[in-house]
Amino acid sequence: MNPRHWARDLAMGARFAVTGGREGWVRMTLTAVGVGLGVALLLLCTAMPNVIASRNKVEDARYANVYSQTVPPKADDTLLIAVADTTWHDDDIRGRIVEPEGRRAPLPPGVDRFPGKGEMVVSPALKDLLDSDDAKLLRERLPYRITGTIGESGLIGSHELAYYAGASGLKLSVTFPVTRLTEYGKPDAPPEETDPVLLLMVMVVIVVLLTPVAVFIAAAVRFGGERRDRRLAALRLVGSDRGMTRRIAAGEALAGALLGLAVGTGFFLLGRQKLGTGELLGVSVWPSYLDPAPALAALVAVAVPVAAVLVTLLAMRGVVVEPLGVVRAARQRRRRLWWRLLPPLAGLGMLYPMLGQGHENGDFNQYLVIGGVLMLLIGITALLPWAVEAVVVRLGKGPLSWQLAVRRLQLSSGTAARMVNGIAVAVAGAIALQMLFTGTQNRYTESTGMDPDRVQMQVEFSSPKPPSGIERAFTGTKGVRAAAVLARAEYGDSRRDPKSNSDLTVGSCAALRELAALPSCKDGDVFIKRTRSGYSDPSNAAEIALAKPGRQLYIDPSYDGEDRGLEVPWTVPANLRQVNARKDSLQEYASLLVTPAALPAKAAPAVFSDGVYLRLDPSVPDSREYVRNVAARMDPLAQAFGWSATQENAKYTSIRTGLFVGSAFVLALIGASLLVSQLEQLRERRKLLSALVAFGTRRRTLSLSVLWQTALPVGLGLVLATGVGVVLGTVLLKMTRIPVAMDWASVLTMTGVGAAVVGVVTLLSLPPLLRMMRPSGLRTE
Amino acid sequence: MPRIHGMYSVLMSIGHTLLGLLESGPRHGYDLKRAFDETFGHDRPLHYGQVYSTMSRLLKNGLVEVDGIEAGGGPERKRYAITDAGITDVEQWLATPQKPEEYLQSALYTKVVLALLTHRDAADILDTQRSEHLRSMRILTDRKRKGDLADQLICDHALFHLEADLRWLELTAARLDKLREAVAR
Amino acid sequence: MTTSPPGRLLTAQDLRKTYAHTHALDGAEFSIHPGEVVAVMGPSGSGKSTLLHCLAGILPPDSGSITYNGREMTTMSDAQRSALRRSEFGFVFQFGQLVPELTCVENVALPLRLNGTSRKEAERAALGWMERLEVDDLKGKRPGEVSGGQGQRVAVARALVTGPRVLFADEPTGALDSYNGERVMELLTDAARSTNAAVVLVTHETRVAAYSDREIVVRDGRSQDMERAI
Questions:
Q1: Which residues of chain B have a CB within 8 Å of the CB of C210?
Q2: Alpha carbons C46 and C56: distance in angstroms, whole number
Q3: Residue contact A698–C82, C-beta within 8 A
């Protein structure tokens, strides 16, 4: 093949693409927009490594290690910093309280001046949030005056909620979340080893998200194919041979793809600004993070046009353009099954060697994983046209709308299958992933041992506080049904340097019932648990012997070389009862349970509480915010958190979030492509539709036939997708050595989402259909 | 309507037509007249005399010969056969193109121009003529539908000519304004 | 000429219809008797197709009245007009009217199926009409596989299959050569006469118009009955 001919014919095709008159431009625009959307999505993906790197860089640059073992001495360049994170509804707010100890104290990234006491600098998003009307409770919690904003270099995304508040008199302590530092930054740690199963998931997610995009681009290049074929026939008439015709067609596709690249770059740049200023599923970034990796971007720029040409040549294979029209060879030749089975079988073959490898036996071969998953998914696009044809040929009887649809599909099952390919691939991938996620969920979700039915929230203070104040504060809080304050005090068998010592737990009867099964209880009672936890010998005989009724003990004894304790004498009451500890006890460490009235009043200053357990009133919507506010008022460094039964591995969660974000994009894209090809098909048939309406066809009949025409291939596509998805999911689970369990609910959800996209598209194409059915379509242009 | 049939009689060469009929085999004079009338005669059958005089002219020119005579005598009893020269003559006649008829002068054209010159409504004249033409066409179409192949051929010929007239009428109607200017100048 | 009119089947008075800027119809009149074939002629863009579309209830006129069988059509709802077209009218267009993916017999059966006739019965009736139009041998073929003249005869069969009282034909021979055009016209008018259906025939060919009983000429959106002009 002469390259000069190639160049000439491609150029001619490209010229046809842009000089095709109004029709040509419409088609060109559709292709360019379609390809552009795909390209924008691909560019977005190429920017992902940079996004992760940039976010890590910022995280690293502002990291203050509160758990550091070595704390530098106070100096001119030191800073006291404490963690004061909080939560507003479902959004986490990163909070730090800072106190510079000298003029050269290090400023956090993005902050140009330390906030003074009672002042804070905030991220722009937090400023907006605080300014909004419904953030009254948050304003109460963060009562500082805003004196500035945190710059981009100190935030990991434009919508991150963060603040630095100024303070004075922060106390450095080992138990305090307060530290002193001279510079920010993460201590060098050995790189974490990624769990190979998580890596497998990442790979599968990427393939599953990108394959539909590729399928979509391939479909977009073929937008307006029928009209194009007619023009090619005209070219044959004036003497172009078959080879030339193909090259001209490829040239048109190339022009569309190149324009699509340009449009896609434009979309990407626009989207970059939009994404940089918006957020999706709680994730936001800065526009500058969305810089495509040059090598990957170059790959996109080359792969898209090349793929466009290849797809066109492949599609032209089944089409014979004759001077007087286009003959689709596909009509004469029934599709054969055998070669269509090759890609999925090859995919299975690539994945097979890794079966049973599990996550202990080293990494999965990346190439085989990606290749295998890709082949299985691409296999759908090969199998679907065959399946649609094989099924449609056997259909017949039914109402008129059904007949119209079935006949249409029999004549052009390829077009129909092409439309559905993208959605089938996406759904199959989603089903497989869903199976993988459900199967591995247990591994990456730990049980916290917390029962959210019993306690909905827990507050931990940065330093112990007297229990009476806590109870008062929280019992009166809006939305709190009950506050269980458990306090502790130390006791010993002598005033000084006791030979035996232990802790006792002080709490109301209600609070103590959270620890042990009490037969009866009134203030003044004392109990001791029969068992102790945390010891290899659960028998609590030693402490039971120590705390014999009538024995003289001392609360808060003194130790040699330390501050003197209160040394309050306390006689163990005669009504001390032995009780059984609750298996689901809230706290474990102290076995001696004492109601407040059983202790002498003088001992009160020695009793401290670290926090409180809260039962909330579900009918008060903002109860959690009220609790957080009370906690913050008592102790700005207090941590208030909700109880949940399980906790997910953070990486696992972020992969999952990534999947959802990606799926949202991909489904929107596929929906758009479906809509475009649907409208195009309708436009082709405008005159016929008008004629059908002229002799009295009900609009309902025509609308229904359009629905059938979409629903049939979509239904088949979804069935096929479910099959392939389940196979792929099973294989992936077998690879990770996780027992295969079918999660039919999620399979149904995924197919349901796919079907919903089609439903929406059909609905959206109805108004144009109705408009096209107007009799004015009969008028000759 | 008579115009049409007159036209055909005049244009037709009876001698060549009879020769052509003989090509399929020898015939009696009476048979010839019947065959002619069936295929071409329609409203105006041939006279025996016309057949007789034509055949004797053809005999004299050596284009036909007498194949046999039946008892009783008389021209209609003779059986004629075509000679090789006769066949050649028919071939030559068929191969010679007819001179296309050109209607450079017509009464209708004159009427239109006159109407314009005298500031009468030429459109009315055209419309009246149009109706009349269409009426003729309808009758011919009707006859064509009821008749045999020969009827169809001859009616179609007439219909196409009438259609040509009608096209001219339409064009003229569309051009009347320009024509009016031209005539007034 | 062939029928003595007992009364008018379809009449229109003072029809006006304006597209964006042009007056497609500007006071057109029309009437037809049962069994009558009326040709609507006129230069391109004169409004003859618009007149046909209005008469057939496809397009509502801006003003004027259309009466079919004593019923005013301009005040009917779209659904009513559609039902009328389904049951009382038949249509033949120049092209683009056969559904390419249906076979010929399915195409002919289509209007019956729209009226709720069962598939089997509809196709039996369709085949009967295809025989009358001499295209019954094409029943299993798709429109793409038959010639223009055959396709148009299939279309005529389809227009007549419901036994319409009015047949609207818009340039039915426009895409055919004279032989096939004549053949279609013969079959169309024969079939219409045999069922006493009226035919509204829009054409610019006088030889096609010659199949009519009466002629109406539309010029600049106004109609003129050529019989009365004499």
A1: 134, 137-138, 140-141, 159
A2: 18
A3: yes
Question: Are B43 and B82 within one domain?
Answer: yes
Contact between A211 and A374 (Cβ < 8 Å): yes
**Among C167, C179, C156, which residue's Cα sits nearest to residue C212?**
C167
Range of the domain at A581: 457-644
Q: Do A776 and C111 touch (CB under 8 A)?
A: no
Output A680 or A645, whichever has higher pLDDT: A680
Domain that holds residue B90: 11-95
Ramachandran angles phi, psi of C101, nearest 5°:
-90, -10
Domain-located, residue B120: yes
Residue where a domain terminates, one of B95, B126, B144: B95
Of C83, C102, C119, the CB nearest to A696: C83
Q: How far is A216 from chain C (nearest CA, A)?
A: 27
Q: How many domains does chain A have?
A: 3
* CA atoms of C96 and A147, how far apart (whole Å): 73
Would you say residue A52 lies in a domain?
A: no
| Whether residue B42 is found in the same domain as residue B78 | yes
With a CB-CB cutoff of 8 Å, which residues 12-51 of chain C face chain B? Answer: 43
Asked if residue B4 belongs to a domain, the reply is no
Q: What is the pTM of this model?
A: 0.62
Domain-embedded: residue B1: no
| pLDDT beneath 50, residues of chain B | 1-11
Highest mean pLDDT among A24-28, A562-566, C82-86, C155-159: C155-159
Q: Domain total for chain B?
A: 2
User: Which residues does chain C have within 8 Å of residue B128's beta carbon, measured at their own beta carbons?
Assistant: 229-230
Q: Contact, C106 vs C182, CB < 8 A?
A: no
Same-domain status, A497 and A618: yes
Cβ(C165)–Cβ(C198) under 8 Å? yes
Mark whether B125 and B77 lie in a shared domain.
no
- Please indicate, yes or no, if residue A37 is contained in any of the structural domains: no
Residue A472's DSSP bridge partners are none
Average pLDDT of the segment spanning A535-544:
77
CA distance A696 to chain C (A): 4
Is residue B171 one of the residues assigned to a domain? yes
Q: Is residue A325 part of a domain?
A: no
Give the up-direction half-sphere exposure of residue A25: CA atoms within 13 A in the CB hemisphere.
3
Q: B134 and C226: CB-CB below 8 Å?
A: yes
Q: pLDDT under 70 in chain C at which residues?
A: 1-6, 95-96, 227-230
Structure-model confidence comparison of residues A614 and A673, the more confident one: A614
